[in-house]
């Protein structure tokens, strides 16, 4: 069942619907009403009661006053005590209008049960309106309103408290009388200062209040109602604190304390003041039931109180608001003395309702996550209590033009964006982050209550809060408690550090990481500047281009052409030996961003003074971030360097390696791709050698020529190493597909150990030559060896040493560096094939005028020896 949106059910008052809200309507002023200058909502008794919800406290107060005025029992002296803005003046207005304007409200059904007190009078003194220097005193003003000023005239003019006898006389001749005293504390502070200046005995107003309280308590048909703040937070000086204590002490002997608004009645007060009609009870119950079932299903993922049956009733009472919104405003923001509790909540929610009603976006209830902090009026209602510095916090993270929370919603896709998940979560956390008390945070269960409704996946809230922690600048998380502060979090510290990282340093670090990450499976050349930087040799080479020569750039394509065709001033012979890697601009930018983050986090870790500014949680988070970014860089490198080029039969062939799926270094990835594409071969057949490397008329060719051809001929598949060729030749000779000529002998259908200088023959040609060779060696030779195989060595008599037999060989030779592969095939393999136990020691004496850098020595030479299991017995550097 799809619940209706709140604006389809509840009808706000006309001024809210038309967005003509006047803040003055939320600031009740009894003095303005007496002067006839108040807004209609307060001036007109009938209109006032239509917008007023009579709480049990108000009803009790009214019943008590009416009972006393009618000669019955009750509390004659009453103190209405609430926090500032908590409904004190509103309570006095209820009493004032009921006594003063009874005829105008008798048609209202909810008031019909209260009795009418004939000839009752009401007098009110408003401390904020009174002139403490030259205006009437409280006793003069009350006497004037009751029509008997002459009794108090002398004392009023002299500004001296009249005493009990005068007061008793005034009340006796006035009949049933209600006296209202509002904002009396402020008047006392002003009067004390005036008395000091005028050299009048101080404390006259306090003396009057004590006299009046005692006289009223002893007089029938009379009641005194005084409004006092519950704490001095409402005022602004030590004088006020002292005066409040004296006033409470004086009146405390005889008065009773009434609180006009308590508990869930606050919900009724608020919605009555803001809405003409809040829909059918049936709909409200359906909405409450739906949210209650949602919270039941979520179990411990939401606070326990929202799963209690009483919370369902609270939802009904607060509709169309969610109770959590009113609670956070009243309990947390209301703790600020400047917020004014009920008045502040009404004023703020009036703006919120007007904003949401205009947009008419779907929402069964008005939750804290829906408050639009982009609305300047709403935003200022919060900012004025916490400081202008939080403007930057909201603009940066929650609701500015480039705020990060809405950007998260856009990046995460339609589900996030449709429900404003990240923005709603951040708004809710912001509301819970402020209080005059100690509670200045929220938790994930409470964020869920502030955000979720039927249709939104519950898991999405946890994901969004995690993303807020990753990307927002002023969002703080500690021990699963979330808040906004005006101090930047670790994200902002890192961003600030990133701004100090120079581009050149980023490029150098990327190059260094690439050099460490290339591997040693092939010769690698990182960021060559021209073709002469890459030698023209018959070795497989991986050339990684500088990002300035990207795949998308024209100069990148030009350098590719130059490298394939030239080796400095001359033409390149071994063109097919080159494999080029170019960066993708977009993905390289991602790599740069990650490297900037890596250098920033590393810099923070090394900056002890900056590190000390972080909390222990921040330090742990910094370690995690460093680990994550460090582990992610190899993937970023692979993803950035994805455009591969090699020579095909039709020219340069481009391939996109795509997104990496397994962890490999660059060499491993390229080699694997070349093997998968059969551009690089680990095994070849003898027939493949004939097909690819012999022309139709060619009968013989050296192994070196064959091997060189694979590196020279564009489009020719590459052989992984010389052994691939040697193994194919060995097999081909044995099977008769190939032949081999060495030192004048022809080998055909025999076991051989070819080397790079061996001459390879077509099989039929080798067979033909071998027959001729047999004939030349003597008549009957062919008949003696019908198989065509050459005879083995002659038998040696027992005890006679075989010619050429050697038990141990110790060989030391100077070898050209580019002939090492021939040593393997022509020296090491034959010795190994004879069952030799080989111990090979390599002695290298290398000199360079330019000098060998540490990367070459440590990351190439030593690392290679380590990976192949080599043991370095001696290493001398000069």
Shape: rod-shaped
The portion of residues forming beta strands comes to 5-15%
Order of strands, main sheet, comes to 3-4-5-2-6
Largest sheet: 5 strands, parallel
Q: How many individual β-strands?
A: 23
Low-confidence parts, pLDDT < 50 over ≥5 residues? 779-803
Rg, Å, rounded? 48 Å
Q: Tell me the number of helical segments per DSSP (H or I, 4 or more residues long).
A: 40
Indicate the structural class. alpha/beta
Helix content: 40-55%
Give the end-to-end Cα distance, rounded to a whole number of Å: 84 Å
The averaged pLDDT comes out at 87
Offer a concise description of the structure.
The protein contains 40 helices and 23 strands.
What would you note in describing this structure?
With 878 residues, the protein is an alpha/beta fold. Helix content is 50%, strand content 11%. The chain contains 40 helices and 23 strands. A five-stranded parallel beta sheet has the order 3-4-5-2-6, with helices on both faces. A hairpin with a 2-residue loop joins β21 and β22. It is rod-shaped, with a radius of gyration of 48 Å.
Features:
five-stranded parallel beta sheet, alpha/beta, 40 helices, 878 residues, five-stranded mixed beta sheet, 23 strands
SSE inventory with pairings:
Blueprint: H1 6-9, E1 11-12, H2 14-17, H3 30-35, H4 40-43, H5 45-50, H6 56-69, E2 77-82, H7 88-100, H8 102-105, E3 121-126, H9 138-146, H10 149-158, H11 164-174, E4 177-182, H12 184-198, H13 204-217, E5 222-229, H14 238-251, E6 255-258, H15 265-274, E7 275-277, H16 281-298, H17 309-318, H18 323-332, H19 341-359, H20 376-386, H21 389-399, H22 404-412, H23 414-419, H24 421-431, E8 442-443, H25 444-451, H26 459-471, E9 475-478, E10 481-484, H27 490-498, H28 503-516, E11 523-526, E12 541-544, H29 554-565, E13 566-567, E14 570-571, E15 578-582, H30 585-606, H31 608-611, H32 616-640, E16 643-648, E17 651-656, H33 666-676, E18 680-681, H34 686-693, E19 700-702, H35 703-712, E20 718-719, H36 722-735, E21 738-742, E22 745-748, E23 759-762, H37 763-776, H38 781-784, H39 820-833, H40 854-867
Helix pairs in contact: 9-10, 11-13, 12-14, 13-14, 15-19, 16-17, 18-19, 22-24, 24-25, 24-26, 27-30, 28-30, 30-32
